[in-house]
Amino acid sequence: MTLAQMTPRLPVLSVALAALMALPPLTPVLAQDAVPAAGLAADEDQGPLRIEITGGQVEPMPIAVVPFFDEGGAGTLAADIQRVVTADLTGTDLFREIPEDAQVARPEGFEAPVAYPDWRAVNAEALVTGAVALDGENVTVKFKLYDVFSGQPLGDGLQFDAPRAGWRRVAHKVADQIYARITGETAYFDSRVAFVSETGPKDARLKRIGIMDYDGANPIWVTDDADLVVSPRFSPDGERLLYTSFSSGMPQIMLMDVATVQSRPLKMEAGTMSFAPAFSPDGRWIVYSREKGGNTDLWQMDVATGAERPMVETQAIETSPSFSPDGRQIVFESDQSGAQQIYVMPADGSGEPQRISFGEGSYGTPAWSPKGDLIAFTNQNGDNFHIGVMRPDGTEEKMLTESFLDEGPTWAPNGRVVMFTRQTPGGDGVSRLHSVDVTGRNMRPLDIEGAASDPDWGPLLP
Q: The TolB N-terminal domain covers which part of the protein (predicted)?
């Protein structure tokens, strides 16, 4: 566990962040000229075109995302949106792109008929067409998804209207719809990640908190690097952010309004240090580590009233709490057995903590999946670190990674992907963010400029 450390600075970039956060909810409507595919919905059986996501190997589905049509003033924006949609889908390793030079049967327009036999000839199984129109500072994006084998549209054509500044979000929304229709799962592309940016030498790192798109694009800084800050944690609705600041010389939990980038310290008992916060699923409570008199225990606070109450009080160190998605339990790490291990207990503080980690080495930084079915964790065994997952009762443990230093897992909103920090060896080791599928496949570094650590994956945006 790394002590979370934070600051109440208000950067000038708050204006830019506020503009992005002020974008209206991007709710799709039927494309005006789309013909509804009778009875089809994203969560229904839509015929033979379906990736079944289970454990083990998955053969990526060949998909053609043809260049989006410019229906007025879009210019290069149409290509930009198509590029992001393609990158989202192929980045999951569940889809394989049919390259543009192999797309010999492109429709001549968004409403043109599809030559299904020609697409079958290049082994495409799914086809995406789209159109973009720009009217002043407003963008309209339409798309259709086709099942090449059955020769039918897969669901209705949809249209998104948004400010031009939100074009990337629209692209992610389109990819979310395609992913959900084909896999039957909720997607995760239109989401953000809070993280700690690191600059400077290893023994004197400067840290600031950023918020970015899930793929590393559009980073915006919400603290400066004047004070040490760590452990950003989103509220369930993504509108608030907890973090720990060392601006006073001691760790103190801060609460930020993400839209305004205004922070305030949470009032704790005098003489205590607080760190490692986490929101409850309803956003009403936080659970955190509190140190007083050399003892570190878990406490809860009512965010509205500031009322505190103890949860776990032992002679050991309890930290890194995470709620189950139903809010009934918490998982945390403790060294009460002599080494860091993972424990689960009722979130109301009743009952005794139950240890669930019994493998080799030490265990820490547990994170409960949004689906409730798995707990991700950091494992140190000898000289190697791992990111792993296990069932909430400790069974079916599986290591997903192995490296010099992997730590701090956080879940995608759909529980399909885990993001974490990986540090390179050496005296000036650099931390980078990586992601991996819950099956252990598709390890990917995030494309972020500079060093980064301590990610927290926020919810899907409205």
A: 49-153
Residue 30 forms beta bridges with which residues?
Answer: 158
Whole-number pLDDT of residue 14: 36
pTM: 0.89
Task: Give the residue from 73, 82, 143, 65 showing the smallest Cα distance to 110.
Answer: 143
**Which residues, 6 or more positions from 80, have their beta carbon under 8 angstroms from its beta carbon?**
167, 171
The segment(s) of the chain belonging to CATH 2.120.10.30 are: 190-460
What is the reported pLDDT for 6?
26
Tokens describing residue 416: 């399909």
| Mean pLDDT per 10-residue segment, the chain (462 residues) | 29 38 61 38 46 71 96 95 98 95 88 94 96 95 96 93 95 97 96 93 84 97 90 98 92 96 91 94 96 90 94 91 98 95 94 95 98 98 96 98 97 98 84 96 93 97 93
Q: What pLDDT is recorded for position 30?
A: 59
DSSP letter for each residue of 325-386: TTSSEEEEEE-TTSS-EEEEEETTS-S--EE---SSSEEEEEEE-TTSS-EEEEEEETTEEE
Q: Kindly tell me the burial class for residue 172, based on how many C-beta atoms sit within 10 Å of its own C-beta (0-12, 13-18, 19 or more).
A: buried
User: What is the C-alpha to C-alpha distance for residues 206 and 213, in angstroms, rounded to an integer?
Assistant: 22
- For the chain, where do the domains classified as CATH 3.40.50.10070 start and end? 27-183
- Among the CATH numbers 3.40.50.10070, 3.40.50.20, 3.30.930.20, 3.40.50.300, which is that of 27-183? 3.40.50.10070
* First-to-final CA distance of the chain: 32
Q: What CATH class is the domain 190-460?
A: mainly beta
The pLDDT of residue 424:
87
* pLDDT at residue 13, as a whole number: 34
> What's the rounded Cα separation, in Å, for the pair 343 and 377?
11
- Given a contact cutoff of 8 angstroms between Cβ atoms, the answer to whether 409 and 421 are in contact is no
CB neighbour list of residue 38: distance below 8 Å, 6 or more residues apart: none
- From the list 157, 145, 2, 136, the residue with the least C-alpha distance to 72 is 136
Which amino acid is residue 208, in one-letter code? R
The whole-number pLDDT of residue 24 equals 58
- 350: which 2 tokens? 């009743």
Distance separating alpha carbons of residues 122 and 124, to the nearest angstrom:
6
